[in-house]
Amino acid sequence: MSERRPLSVESSVERAEPGTLQRVVRDLRVGRETAGTRELVSRVARGLAGRVYRRERYLVIEQRIDELIEARVPEGVRVSAFADEWDAVAPLLTSAVRRQFELRARSGRACLLAWRGDRVIGYTWMSTRIDPSIEGLPLALPDSAAYLWDLFVIRRERSAGIGTALTGARLAWTREAGFDLGWRAISPSNRPSARTAEKTGAVRVLGEIQALTRFGNSTYREQPFENRPLLTV
Ligand SMILES: CC(C)(COP(=O)(O)OP(=O)(O)OC[C@H]1O[C@@H](n2cnc3c(N)ncnc32)[C@H](O)[C@@H]1OP(=O)(O)O)[C@@H](O)C(=O)NCCC(=O)NCCS
Questions:
Q1: Hey, how many other C-beta atoms are within 10 angstroms of the C-beta on 205?
Q2: Mean pLDDT (whole number) for 58-73
Q3: What is the mean pLDDT of residues 144-165?
Q4: Which of 85, 88, 138, 227 has the most crowded CB, counting CB atoms within 10 A?
């Protein structure tokens, strides 16, 4: 005769999908340790509400590779190309972000890591073409530009120049890959992100994109400041 287990939230979640509870608990811990409680709460709230309705604005900016300001890498930190160091990067990744990383790596996108000793403390991604299901925006990236995106530094290492060092390193990567321009999409309210651009070279604002997501479907509006499209839709 089979033994009966008492009913509990935990056992019913585990029955519904093995490992779900452990994954949620781990994701919350990773989010709190890497981004901090306030950023985690706002991310979760935005994620939940964003499934129903989300409105976002981005400034599309361009940096010319021949107008760069060299960024200093802080002492004790090194920046290197991601070479499948999955174990080292794992402590920074929630399960959803890990799936995104795997898709990007499989799809040939390039990533840089910032290290302190043997610990990864930040990362960023570079793309030479746009697939909106990967890069998240249907940008009309010109052939002469690389798209430089998803810049992240763990909270306790911020304001020490690591975000700027990663930004400088990905612009150097852009130059070495033979591109003339780096494109970014920055939320106008993200001052730290905008500063990493301003501190690494001349910035030209190409225009603004508004993204509206309703029940999982996104629509986009663009307001180019010059006579150049920003979107492919
Ligand atoms: C954006 C981010 C990568 C910057 O990393 P960082 O290591 O702190 O960057 P730096 O130390 O090079 O600092 C960049 C500038 O932002 C400023 N800054 C950092 N934190 C700030 C804050 N909370 N509020 C206002 N300015 C801030 C720094 O003072 C510096 O400007 P300054 O040189 O004029 O003083 C980091 O804040 C982050 O990971 N944020 C969450 C993810 C994100 O928003 N990514 C960008 C969009 S993809």
A1: 14
A2: 96
A3: 98
A4: 138
